[in-house]
Amino acid sequence: MKMLLSLVKLIAIVYCVVCVVLYFMQERLLFFPEKLTPTHQFTFAANFEEMTITAKDSVRLNGLLFRADSSQGLIFYLHGNAGSLASWGDVASVFTALHYDVFMLDYRGYGKSEGKISSEQQLHADVQLAYDSLTARYGEKNIIVAGYSIGTGPATRLAAFNHPALLLLHAPYYSLTDLARHRFPFIPSFLLRYHLPLYKWLPACKMPVFIFHGDKDEVIYYGSSLKLQKLFKPSDKLMTLPEQQHNGIHDNATYLAALKKLLE
Q1: Domain ranges of the chain
Q2: Is CATH 3.40.50.1820 what the domain over 31-263 is classified as, yes or no?
Q3: What's the whole-number mean pLDDT along residues 114-134?
């Protein structure tokens, strides 16, 4: 009996330690930035402009604006939780080929952006600041907001509190709380400091919403989009990508054909 009690105590201690680590180190578990030196030179074949956006706390955020021939508007693109613009920038060609300029932001601590992400509110404020900079150039009616993976949360909130022409979501989650509950049911939800509840913001999006999600997504389960679909307006649409996993949606032939039809 003593051995059993000792084992239970050990398990309880380990569980508590895991919970404490999870609470205080969530940024390290959610965000996997690639850091670039301030002097890094981007080498994309496309025509692009490097932009610096200064936040209210004087942190400088780095972004890239890719230009298309005979531009019809702007794709405001929020990328996933790993890498930097050095790799995500290649995605821009998907949209510039369809005659849209593309702006991509590196979040705090990513690429050449300074600082580090410390709260969900801070992340939203940075995204809004960057969006305001681009609306001044393009006019909001000419902007399409797009997000991939972790970026779908900030993208949906941005669309809910602003008035872009369209919202494109690639492999979205219902909320980070729901995703954590699905993947790690033993972790108490109250420990999570990042919730990103798309299900709360989606009904406030007045523009058409298009979701693209692979039915073999191993990172953000496909059922997340089925849940979001229940919140759709008549103008919204979910496109299921058969056999598609989490990464590589922008290379998917079915996706590219649908995107071309949508944007043209």
Answers
A1: 31-263
A2: yes
A3: 97
